Amino acid sequence: MANELPFEKPVTELKTKIEELKKFTVDKGIDLTGEILKLEERLEQLENDIYGNMKPWDRVQIARHSERPTTLDYISYMFTDFIELHGDRYYGDDEAIVAGIAKFHGKAVTVIGHQRGKDTKENLRRNFGMPHPEGYRKALRLMKQAEKFKRPIICFIDTKGAYPGIAAEERGQSEAIARNLLEMAGLTVPIICIVIGEGGSGGALALGVGNHVHMLENSTYSVISPEGAAALLWKDSSLAQRAAETMRITAPDLKDLDVIDDIIPEVRGGAHRNVKQQAAEIEKTIEKSLAELTKLSETELVEHRYEKFNNIGEYDIVNDVISIK
């Protein structure tokens, strides 16, 4: 199987064996139905064992899968009449962020999301989904426009982080991210944020200040990559798996810490297995969030967002020392 992840090898081998038996049955005219049924039962049990008990590093690998659906993939399934808008009106257009106007169940919304590529050529074009400052300024321009016309904002988060290059820093990368955090906190329309892949550092948070923040089951959301954390903590980036297990970057951990509101279930094996089905699950969550948030007044929306981020996390104070739970 193309792009097979290491922990999926037993599943792939068993599926191959089942296909071989089915082909043998057709070619040779020998009835192997009983053997095939037993193997299919074994396959189901194996998939339950593997996908039902994934470790943090397994989820990191799925979140990074080259075929994982992107913002544009989901837009094509969930929204109609999408019109992409370009440019920040200061410097240029950053293709690592797509943004525009669309209709969701017949109602106008603004859609913004990180966009990475699925092959080398597109990744170079999209800068591997790592935005420059103009990308965040484009996003903010569309958010302010959404506020003016009373459109809900839906953000899809999927980036390793903001681009750390010299040119990005010269054009005000940190200020652009900080400005988004400040402005999003005070917007008077509903904001729904969904982590669909990797949610890396400030580059992700710049689109993540929402009334509701959801995550796909196998996505990650962290202040730094596991490799970066391992390099800082133990001077060895090869210990990324160990870092992933201690950082609490998966959806279940972040749900426990109240960093996110809901975990969106993924199709077995990851969202890339069935994009249409996965889009349907996300659509349900967006519909539910909009139904709840559109009942709030402008003032209540801002207060709701403030309270959400004010209550994130758990900690104890012992002898004037803060201990994060």
From TrEMBL:
GO molecular function, one term: acetyl-CoA carboxylase activity
CoA carboxyltransferase C-terminal domain segment(s): 35-292
EC number assigned by the record: 2.1.3.15
Primary location: cytoplasm
Domain of life assignment: Bacteria
Name of the molecule in the record: Acetyl-coenzyme A carboxylase carboxyl transferase subunit alpha
SUPFAM superfamilies the UniProt entry points to: ClpP/crotonase
Pathway: Lipid metabolism; malonyl-CoA biosynthesis; malonyl-CoA from acetyl-CoA: step 1/1
NCBIfam families: accA (TIGR00513), AccA_sub (NF041504), PRK05724.1 (NF004344)
Keywords assigned by UniProt, alphabetized: ATP-binding, Coiled coil, Cytoplasm, Fatty acid biosynthesis, Fatty acid metabolism, Lipid biosynthesis, Lipid metabolism, Nucleotide-binding, Transferase
InterPro entries: Acetyl_CoA_COase_a_su, ClpP/crotonase-like_dom_sf, COA_CT_C
Subcellular compartments: Cytoplasm
Any Pfam family the entry gives: ACCA
Self-association and partners: Acetyl-CoA carboxylase is a heterohexamer composed of biotin carboxyl carrier protein (AccB), biotin carboxylase (AccC) and two subunits each of ACCase subunit alpha (AccA) and ACCase subunit beta (AccD).
GO biological process, one term: malonyl-CoA biosynthetic process
GO CC entries: acetyl-CoA carboxylase complex
Sections of the chain in a coiled coil: 272-299
Annotated catalysed reactions: N(6)-carboxybiotinyl-L-lysyl-[protein] + acetyl-CoA = N(6)-biotinyl-L-lysyl-[protein] + malonyl-CoA
Similarity comment: Belongs to the AccA family.
Stated role: Component of the acetyl coenzyme A carboxylase (ACC) complex. First, biotin carboxylase catalyzes the carboxylation of biotin on its carrier protein (BCCP) and then the CO(2) group is transferred by the carboxyltransferase to acetyl-CoA to form malonyl-CoA.
Nucleotide-binding keyword on record: yes
PANTHER family attached to this UniProt entry: ACETYL-COENZYME A CARBOXYLASE CARBOXYL TRANSFERASE SUBUNIT ALPHA (PTHR42853), ACETYL-COENZYME A CARBOXYLASE CARBOXYL TRANSFERASE SUBUNIT ALPHA, CHLOROPLASTIC (PTHR42853:SF3)
